[in-house]
């Protein structure tokens, strides 16, 4: 159960980095050879590649943030992540496999706030040098149409 | 406090079963002679029966799921529950009484996501054979008009 | 980590008092010489005063609730707070500094539910007589236009 709280604290810090425009911190939540994908429930169930966002190293995540900065996307919108408590599926020497529900609100410059995305993270956590990191995070969106709007990380 | 985390983990698994279309698992979160109701804050305050959803046994919950499957309701919409941390009101040999806020997003097949329901669970948990189960869950919705749209469990 | 759970429990009780119309309890979550402000991310980043809600004592919070009761605002709307897990920035003899994301749904009398506000609490907690209290809570809204609608406490 202490582990569950550690996962909660990790996810809270992860969400805060994104929502408070500290995007450069975002890759540091992953292992160097991580897997990060965004897909939707329908594609994931049928084993289809999502084609939306795919990265298989921390370096690719860093590139993505650099591209977002160049596009200056943050000026026009903010995100607010609300995360649930993880459901731990397994935990052993290889790491911890867990699922965590998310709801992301998007706040446009006009002030309008909408539910931008919902879904669940399907994660594999690993301890590296005593630090909890994401070896894998697949953000499975509930909606199939979130994709076209994706900008900031989920 | 360890108990609080156990309640959190229970609720997370409960929500995941519903949101990931494992509805057949849903009755297993309840005791055999459970009480499950959905009502709204106004009716509950005035002591009125809600008339929306009422079940006083796990068998009735199973019937409800079978009916939902027959209606094939899941094809047309998905739910995403975001739950807060429970507020524990009492905990003794009879069980644990707690309230937990919920927000449920509904994702239509068109992709549109809206806040479908908000409210709080008013729960009585019991340990049965070392396992935490719901002896009672009353889902008190904030809105009086949620009712007509109810399909999947809250 | 045990402390983190205590913060979660505190915030859950705080939100419940507001959402369940026990507004008179709200000031009791603060120290007597507390600071409570509502502002938005843009003003806060530029160091501007928000001008929306400002109170520097528990007595002022009590006055605010009395005014809300007089305006009878609760008849026309309900709030539902969904709070995330706090990110603890520091914890020492002076207290605990933490940030907690919030999402607040507003339920109008017509039943319509919208995302009313999102943001984060920037808090300083203190132990007073063995009890956790807020010495400071700044509710930083993501949107600059939430302000004009503010009624119940965040």
Task: Provide an overview of this structure.
The structure is a homotrimer of 154-residue chains. Chain A is of the alpha+beta class and 154 residues long. Helix content of chain A is 24%, strand content 44%. Chain A contains 3 helices and 7 strands, in the order αβαβαβββββ. In chain A, strands 1, 2, 3, 4, 5, 6 and 7 form a 7-stranded mixed beta sheet that branches. In chain A, a hairpin with a 4-residue loop joins strand 5 (95-108) and strand 6. The longest helix of chain A is centred in the N-terminal third of the chain and has 18 residues, at 2-19. Chain A starts with a helix and ends in a 13-residue tail after the last strand. Chains in contact: A-B, A-C, B-C. The interface between B and C is medium-sized, with 25 and 26 residues.
């Amino acid at each position: 159960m202490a582990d569950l709280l550690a996962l909660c604290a990790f996810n809270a810090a992860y969400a805060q980095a994104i929502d408070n425009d500290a995007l450069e911190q975002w890759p540091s939540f992953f292992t160097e050879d991580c897997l990060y994908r965004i897909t939707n429930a329908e594609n994931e169930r049928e084993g289809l590649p999502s084609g939306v966002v795919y990265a298989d190293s921390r370096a690719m995540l860093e590139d993505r943030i650099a591209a977002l900065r160049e596009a200056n996307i943050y000026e026009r919108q903010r995100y607010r992540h609300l995360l649930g408590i993880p459901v731990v599926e397994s935990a052993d020497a290889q790491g911890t496999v867990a699922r965590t529900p998310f709801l992301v609100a998007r706040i446009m410059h006009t002030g309008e706030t909408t539910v931008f995305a919902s879904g669940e993270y399907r994660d594999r956590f690993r301890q590296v040098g005593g630090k909890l990191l994401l070896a894998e995070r697949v953000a499975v969106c509930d909606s199939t149409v979130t994709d076209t709007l994706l900008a900031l990380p989920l």
